[in-house]
């Protein structure tokens, strides 16, 4: 039975990609070695890069084709409620560490790292996602296709004994989202944060709102004032906010855990903003990229350099508010290299964009440009 093709258009004015190959082709049969290895890559200040992809990053793990790897990922919104999503979690505490003297992860974005240039913080916030990796895949070379099969996804429980066994997430109606200028009540425009608790104990997993609050100017530990959510990981001082515990009473939001950002290192530029997706993957934000899904990415650099993060608990076919319900997740992946010489007469032949396979469909994603990084080379 042939799968259907689905076009997923991201953003405004984006055209669907072409060059899909033959729908009647079959995916490559892949025989996995019996001696494949299982790996674990935790999320710590030493194993994440924040807000960008880069071909110059030192690999945090090296694996072989067919290996499985369990990868911890952290939401960059955890400091919206650090007591629930950071405190007592050694990995998260190391990543979100920020005192008047130091930060656990200094560079948070693809912008400048020169203190004489940046205003908000190193990296300028151009790129916001905490990405675990990169993972170097042996024998992956430019022209090959990397298959990433998501075997399992699990929520990361709070490390705080006060919330033992519970998992939380945050949704921001932020200045870059559609809700910012369309609030019903005054003051408007405004940014609103809603903190959710996730329940995965029933037949249908769901999230319920605990409280929300309006973003008010926050002063980070380095003394920079953030009028809006303009730099990732700013710790919210809960002594400055008013919490509304009556928000969304009786409302249950269905959970479908997925990774908003999975990608490889591109070849065109060294430091690439994690926000715009492209041929190498990145911030696709498709709720279908969860357990049971398989992604295929064109390899652009030796070893592929796979990274993932931006974990979500729930999202529709867009992020109208500006974010999903952002939460921290752990995923188990199986990673396979499809060599360029084996691609002819398969559905992966001439693949130059990220392709999603589900049980029922192949899904391609419409970008404004198939490769925005290559535009300069064509001008």
Q: Can you give a write-up of this model?
A:
This protein has helices spanning 82-85, 90-96, 375-378; strands spanning 4-9, 38-41, 48-50, 52-54, 61-63, 68-73, 130-137, 145-155, 167-173, 192-199, 206-214, 218-219, 225-226, 253-254, 258-263, 271-273, 281-283, 294-298, 306-314, 325-327, 329-338, 355-357, 361-366. The chain is mainly beta. It has a domain at 4-156 and 257-308 and 329-378: Acetamidase/Formamidase-like domains (Jelly Rolls), CATH 2.60.120. Strands 3, 5, 7, 9, 10, 11, 14, 15, 17, 19 and 20 form an eleven-stranded mixed β-sheet that branches. An eight-stranded mixed β-sheet has the order 1-23-22-18-8-21-6-2, with no helix packed on it. The protein has a two-stranded antiparallel ribbon with strand order 4-16. The longest helix has 7 residues, at 90-96. It is globular and about 60 Å long.
At a glance:
By secondary structure, the chain is mainly β. The chain is built from 3 helices and 23 strands. Strands 3, 5, 7, 9, 10, 11, 14, 15, 17, 19 and 20 form an 11-stranded mixed β-sheet that branches. Strands 1-23-22-18-8-21-6-2 form an 8-stranded mixed β-sheet, with no helix packed on it. A two-stranded antiparallel ribbon has the order 4-16.
Number of helical runs? 3
**Helix/strand/pairing category:** mainly beta
CATH first level of the domain at 4-156 and 257-308 and 329-378: which class? Mainly Beta
- Major sheet description: 11 strands, mixed
* Overall CATH architecture of the domain at 4-156 and 257-308 and 329-378: Sandwich
Unreliable spans? 11-33
Average pLDDT works out at 91
Find the CATH topology of the domain at 4-156 and 257-308 and 329-378.
Answer: Jelly Rolls
Count of strand segments? 23
Strand-and-helix sequence, N→C?
Answer: EEEEEEHHEEEEEEEEEEEEEEEEEH
Instruction: Give the terminus-to-terminus CA distance.
Output: 44 Å
Radius of gyration: 20 Å
Our estimate of the beta-strand percent is 25-35%
């Amino acid at each position: 039975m042939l799968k259907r093709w689905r076009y997923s258009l991201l953003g405004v004015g984006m055209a669907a990609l072409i060059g899909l190959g033959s729908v009647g082709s079959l995916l490559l049969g892949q025989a996995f070695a019996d001696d494949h290895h299982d790996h674990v890559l935790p999320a710590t200040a030493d194993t994440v890069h924040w807000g960008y992809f880069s071909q110059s990053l030192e690999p945090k793990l090296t694996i072989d084709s067919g290996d499985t790897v369990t990868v911890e990922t952290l939401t960059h919104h955890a400091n919206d409620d650090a007591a629930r999503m950071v405190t007592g979690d050694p990995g998260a505490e190391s990543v979100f560490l920020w005192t008047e003297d130091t930060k656990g992860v200094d560079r948070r974005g693809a912008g400048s790292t020169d203190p004489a240039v940046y205003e908000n913080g190193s990296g300028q916030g151009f790129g916001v996602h905490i990405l675990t990796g990169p993972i170097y895949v042996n024998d992956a070379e430019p022209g090959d296709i990397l298959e990433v099969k998501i075997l399992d996804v699990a929520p990361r429980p709070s490390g705080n004994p006060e919330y033992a066994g519970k998992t939380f997430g945050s949704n921001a109606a932020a200045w870059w989202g559609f809700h910012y200028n369309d609030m019903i009540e005054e003051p408007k425009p405004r940014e609103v944060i809603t903190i959710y608790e996730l329940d995965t104990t029933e037949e249908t997993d769901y999230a319920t709102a605990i409280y929300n609050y309006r973003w008010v100017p926050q002063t980070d530990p380095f003394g920079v004032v953030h009028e809006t959510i303009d730099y990732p990981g700013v710790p919210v001082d809960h002594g400055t906010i008013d919490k509304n515990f009556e928000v969304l009473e009786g409302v249950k939001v269905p959970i479908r855990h997925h990774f908003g950002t999975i990608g490889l290192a591109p070849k065109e530029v060294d430091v690439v903003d994690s926000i715009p997706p492209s041929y190498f993957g990145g911030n696709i934000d498709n709720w279908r990229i969860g357990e049971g899904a398989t992604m295929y990415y064109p390899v652009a650099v030796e070893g592929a350099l796979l990274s993932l993060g931006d974990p979500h608990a729930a999202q529709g076919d867009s992020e109208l508010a500006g974010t999903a319900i952002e939460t921290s997740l752990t995923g188990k992946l199986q990673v396979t290299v499809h060599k360029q010489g084996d691609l002819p007469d398969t559905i992966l032949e001439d693949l130059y964009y990220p392709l999603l396979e589900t049980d029922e469909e192949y899904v391609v994603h419409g970008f404004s440009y198939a490769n925005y990084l290559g535009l300069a080379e064509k001008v």
